[in-house]
Amino acid sequence: MTNLERWNQILTIISMVLASVFVLVLVATLVLVAAILGRVRSKAPQLAAGLEAAGANTASLQRQIGSINAGLGAVEGGLGSVDGHLIGVARAYRVV
Asked: Rounded CA gap, 49 and 54, in Å?
């Protein structure tokens, strides 16, 4: 047996071992994914009920969104004024 043939056999064995490890990792990953999907499937009705409850709890916001938006606009104006004053103070103390 020549040196080249020996190396060819060694590389073939290493390739088979690595391919086997890859297949085992792939199988383990697929089994874990299947287990997680099984748990998710069992929780799906609870998720649907939670989403329906969230929809029911936030239904009143649709009527109030206009006043909420107006209030947030007023807050924005006030914060803009505070920002202007803080910039003035920073300039007075030569921070900016």
From this structure: 9
